[in-house]
Amino acid sequence: MVNQEHMLKAALPLFARFIISNGLKTKHGMFTITLETMDQALPTVSRNKGLRLVEGAMALISPDVLQISDPDTSSENLTFLLAQLPQYGQLYYRGAVLLQHNFTQQDVDNMDVAYKHGGGDSQIDRFTFLATDRTNQGFIINGRVQVEPVAFTIQVDHLDRTTPKIVHLHCSCNVELLKNGNFGIYITARSLKASHPNIEDDQIIFKILQGPRYGYLENTTTGRCIQEEFSQKDLNSKIVLYVINPTWAVNSDSLEFQVTDPTGSSGTSQILELKWSRIEMQQAAYEVCENVGILSLKITRSGHSTDSAFVTVKVNEASAILGKDFTIPPSKLIQFDPGMSTKKWNIVITYDGLEEDDEVFEVVLNSPVNAILGTRTKAVVKILDSKGGQCSFFHSSGQSKHNLWRTDALLPVSSSSLLPSSPGTVHLERIPLSSSEGVMMQKGNMLPEFKLVNRSRTRLRAVGNGKIVHPSSVFRNGTDVVFKYHGLVSLRVEEDTSSANANKKAEVLVINQGELKSNVVSSRKTEVPQADKAELTSVLHSSHQDLGLSFPKGCTSDLKGLLHYEERVQKLFQCDGISWKLWDSKSKIVNLKKCPSGWSHHDGSCYFLIADHKVTWNTAAQACREQYFGNLASVVTKQHMQWLWNFSGRKPFWIGLNDQENPGHWEWNGGEPVTYTNWRTVSSRLSRKGKNCVLVQRQGKWQAADCRKGRRHNYVCSRKL
Question: Would the pTM count as exceeding 0.85?
Answer without folding.
Answer: no
